[in-house]
Amino acid sequence: DMEQKMKMLENLQDDFDFNYKTLKSQGELSQDLNGNSQASAARQKMAQLEQMLSALDQLRRQIVTEMGGLLTAMDYVQKNLTNEELADWKRRQQIACIGGPPNICLDRLETWITSLAESQLQIRQQIKKLEELQQKVSYKGDPIIQHRPALEEKIVDLFRNLMKSAFVVERQPCMPMHPDRPLVIKTGVQFTNKVRLLVKFQELNYQLKL
C-alpha cells in the first residue's frame, strides 16, 4: 500500500536525519557523508549512517517507480472511461435526441470517475509529500529530484483532463411540447439544458440559462 510506504519512508528519513544531526553536533562527522574520522566508534556510527542512507535511497526509488506505474495504470483507466464509456454514453444521447430509446443514467459513470479522481488527488498529495521530504533530506543521485517533476506534471495533466471530460451536458435542449425532439435553436431565443460534473466533490448540477 502506497500510504504505508510513504509513512515508512517518512519514519526512516526522520531516523536518518536525527542520527546525522546528532553525529554532526558531536563533531564526529564532516560536512558530507564521505568524511573520514580517526575514532573507531565514529567510523562505526558512520557506517550505520551510510546503511540508513542506502535503505532510504532504496525505498525512495521503489516509491517513485511504483508511483510511475500507478500513473500509467490511471492513464489507461481514464482513457477507457473517457474515450469509450463516456463517448458511448454521448452517442446514445444523440440517438435519444432524434427519437431513439432514452439514454441510461449517468450515476455509474459518476461513481467510476469520482473514484478515479479521488485516487488522483491522493497520489497528488503523496507527490507533494515527496517534495517536502526531499527538501529536508537530499543527496547526490536523489531519485525524488530526478523523477518528482515528471510525476507532478503527469498527475496534474491527468486530473485536468479528467475534469474536462467529466463536465457533460446531461440533458440537451429539447422542444417544450416534444421533449424527445432536439430544440431548433434560434438567435435571441432562450433555452435551458442541464449540465453535470461527474465528480461528486460538491453538488454542481444546475440549470444553465443561455
TrEMBL record:
Subcellular location field? Cytoplasm; Nucleus
Boundaries of each STAT transcription factor all-alpha domain copy?
A: 1-159
Q: What is its main location?
A: cytoplasm
- InterPro entries, A to Z: p53-like_TF_DNA-bd_sf, STAT, STAT_TF_alpha, STAT_TF_CC, STAT_TF_DNA-bd_N
Gene Ontology BP, a term: signal transduction
Name assigned to this protein: (spotted green pufferfish) hypothetical protein
Q: Which GO terms describe its molecular function?
A: DNA binding; DNA-binding transcription factor activity
Query: What's the domain of life for this entry?
Result: Eukaryota
The record's listing under Gene3D superfamilies reads: STAT transcription factor, all-alpha domain, STAT transcription factor, DNA-binding domain
- Record key words, sorted: Cytoplasm, DNA-binding, Nucleus, Phosphoprotein, SH2 domain, Transcription, Transcription regulation
Q: Which GO terms describe its cellular component?
A: cytoplasm; nucleus
A Pfam family annotated for this UniProt entry: STAT_alpha
Is the keyword Transferase assigned to this protein?
Answer: no
